[in-house]
Amino acid sequence: MDLTKRFNKNLEKIEISMIRQFDQAISQIPGVLRLTLGEPDFTTPGHVKEAAKEAIDANQSHYTGMSGLLDLRQAASDFVKEKYNLHYNPENEILVTIGATEALSATLTAILEEGDVVLLPAPAYPGYEPIVNLVGAEIVEIDTRSNDFVLTPERLEEAILEQGECLKAVILNYPANPTGVTYSRQEIKDLAAVLAKYEIFVVCDEVYSELTYTGQAHVSLAEFLPEQAIVINGLSKSHAMTGWRLGFIFAPAPLTAQLIKSHQYLVTAAATMVQFAGIEALTVGKNDAEPMKLEYIKRRDYIIERMTKLGFKIIKPDGAFYIFAKIPAAYNQDSFAFLKDFAQKKAVAFIPGVAFGQYGEGYIRLSYAASMETIEEALNRLEEYLEEDAKIAD
């Protein structure tokens, strides 16, 4: 008997994330420095932790409703209204999820069917495609390299028209992982004008919305396209709460009424004491990201200066906490091989650009959600590696 033949056939389209594959490939290297995962080195703010402790002591350990605590949904509603000029009724237009990942899973499994097409500007976070493939739909990437990783209205409309009736949704992630690209108000308005002409969903992954460095607040596409937009957000990046797993889906009431069906059977509800911590984060701690942003800017600018001198081409990121750098032409453009060799020789790990799709090949991603001390040492070793490699080539 071989029951492996009876799994969902769409699992054959899914592989273990290349990010995880690479991490496993270098995991045995003693003392390896990792600038790999999107894991803030900051700790969760103390007042947020205290709120969770108080909830535990108050025996807040029972189920909440499937949508989450109303007080948390109210806090989330107030937060996005103040920060991003978005208007969602906490009663029926917000769902509390187990992180942004579950929010994406609930959303994509609810809106997609076999044969549907989803457009995705690329290079892109690799977590979308497996969910899309599992339901029998397909990701079609839009190559943004020629425009410094920025999606233009013209390229968007061209891609929409190419797909025709099979197109069900567009995923927009910004500030973007891995490039750090974000969009101005006018750029978002122009993209929304294109999308408004077509009967498609727009899934807006805005989990890095509190980490923008332009001096201007994040602009959500939902401000201009409220009827089509499904906004995904969470507290992992803004409040250094990756392990707490708390996210949100914001959508118009008719869409939320359908999205809750997939959400409830995936998870029932987020952990109750975590939801109380979320209330604290979104009210008392609504600006907790500000000191983190200042430190991220310092790290970003330091990396850009150092790596540019080493010959890497970098489009300055205006959000998130990643550097996506083009490998200098004189070196191996196979990003996996380049970084595996670097890791083995210098005990430093970055992420190969190919992990973010075909249009990421030839690039490497560094996370500056690591300490400045770690970053400095990692770049010292990178400089040594390139110098040694150059001598071998000579």
Automatic annotation (TrEMBL):
GO MF annotations, alphabetized: transaminase activity
Keyword Transferase (UniProt): yes
Record's keyword terms, sorted: Aminotransferase, Pyridoxal phosphate, Transferase
Pfam (any one): Aminotran_1_2
SUPFAM superfamilies (alphabetical): PLP-dependent transferases (SSF53383)
Cofactor(s) demanded: pyridoxal 5'-phosphate
Start and end residues of each Aminotransferase class I/classII large domain: 32-382
Protein's name in the database: Aminotransferase
Upper classification of the organism: Bacteria, Bacillati, Bacillota, Bacilli, Lactobacillales
